[in-house]
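Thread: quick sanity check before group meeting

JM: Hey all, I'm pulling together slides for Thursday and realized we never actually wrote out the predicted structure for the chain we discussed last week. Dropping the sequence here so it's in one place. If anyone has concerns about the input, flag it before I start.
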Amino acid sequence: MTGRRQHYAHFYGLLPLPRDDRPLVLVHGNCQAESLRVLVDGDASPVRTVRVPPVHELTAADLPHLDRLLAEIDVLVSQPVRSGYRDLPLGTAEVLARARRRPAAVVVPIIRWAALHPFQVIVRSPAGDPPLVPYHDLRTLTLAAGRPALPEIPSAAAVRAVRDLSVRELTVRQERHGSLDVVDLLHEARSAAAHTVNHPGNAVLAGVAARILSAAGFPGTVVDPGRTLLDSVHTPVLPQVLEALRLDGRSGADWVVSGTRVPDDAVRDAQLRWYADHPGVAEAGLARHAAAAAALAA
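JM (edit): ok, ran it. Output follows.
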């Protein structure tokens, strides 16, 4: 028995599903989805949940276990997952169609929030993730691609432009997929909105979890778990960014990765060497995030 199967013991049938009168909720998606599940299934929750592997880890061998769970659920909470994801029937619509009963469905957006980290982007590449942290910096990408350097310190106007770009992109995704609206939660959380561009803070996640319960018809109180969720990586925040956004909060020059401080210069040096070994990644990243790079260059 592997540690992974033990970790997801209910999903793999090693332990029976939790049984009581509360509705059973499946939360389907990436790491944000698991954090939302933790909050939805907090103390005195009106629903019960089962921990499941994130969608990017599911394999064909997992489908019978997923189907067994789908036969029992009352509510499917899912991030937007495209049909045929990784050549498997794991898309949101496909998972909903596989459920034997007709569960209620709540779609939650995949949250990306660059306001606090305007240079940080995610680039999917066959080469995998860059070293030290799984994030790219537009300043480093421009250096690696031999493009004109971006300012090391963004102007206040550039910071606000990237924030507004984040709002527009998230709003478009929400409307496209008919998902819950979460933009206001990010604004309200201020400097605690996110640890990285794709790791929202507890306050944001708790607000989304409360909206999930309400949308599913089972409103309840969401209790902070007493620990920081999505805690693996914390990106440094420039004081100029906080000033531009008129936010209070702690700035710093170091990353915190699994509890260890990592200087930003060390990340840049390691990633520049990595880009040299993986030609084309920097150019692809700049093409993908051209709007943010242009805002920062202005």
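AS: nice. The mean pLDDT is 96. Residues 3-107+198-216 form a domain with the Rossmann fold fold (CATH 3.40.50.12080).
JM: adding both to the slides.
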